């Protein structure tokens, strides 16, 4: 961690993670370290030195169980954020719920932060959901197509539609989907996305997919034997839950995950200012 100035950020993230772990063990809920957090556990036995957040995943039933108990179990410094609650349910950021660390700040105040009720201005832990992916190739392709389309339509309800990172074809597609989405109540988009996500659960399909990932990662598939079972992995001197086959999951997400990125990419990516921690 030395040289990146993220020691206090990592300490705050660990406070959230410790609470999630405590709650899950109390209620016998299974979670999984995921994405950069799982990579950090395997490659660094803790945080990736330049990473500024934590990612965890649940299978759908475990996520539902966690949602029921987390709001009342979390301390006053933390908050469960339902992705459907922004701007009185009329604002979209993405389909991912989070645990916020309230005594923190990672963006300057402004109209966009106000639109999202100030909730995007805190350190958080992402809560990803693993749903079953259909074995049938056509159904699988349609599932990913409609998930991406629903995300594009939901983007019509963002504070601002930023098309700067897209190529010409993608700009046209995203702009078109967002325009359609503005004509549809966001609550309806949320309901359709949820029904699509759970459509194949209980079928004992071979793979899970992250139904609330962003579109550029939603095609990541992990075998249910990798993530349906758990093991314990060391993380910053603690023992947290992880997929039974972390190697399989990390290869599915990153490919050659042991290779470090170029030095210029080793920077925090979830904030627009130096993250402030108040407690």
Automatic annotation (TrEMBL):
<protein>
    <submittedName>
        <fullName>LicD family protein</fullName>
    </submittedName>
</protein>
<dbReference type="InterPro" id="IPR007074">
    <property type="entry name" value="LicD/FKTN/FKRP_NTP_transf"/>
</dbReference>
<dbReference type="GO" id="GO:0009100">
    <property type="term" value="P:glycoprotein metabolic process"/>
</dbReference>
<dbReference type="Pfam" id="PF04991">
    <property type="entry name" value="LicD"/>
</dbReference>
<feature type="domain" description="LicD/FKTN/FKRP nucleotidyltransferase">
    <location>
        <begin position="24"/>
        <end position="255"/>
    </location>
</feature>
<dbReference type="InterPro" id="IPR052942">
    <property type="entry name" value="LPS_cholinephosphotransferase"/>
</dbReference>
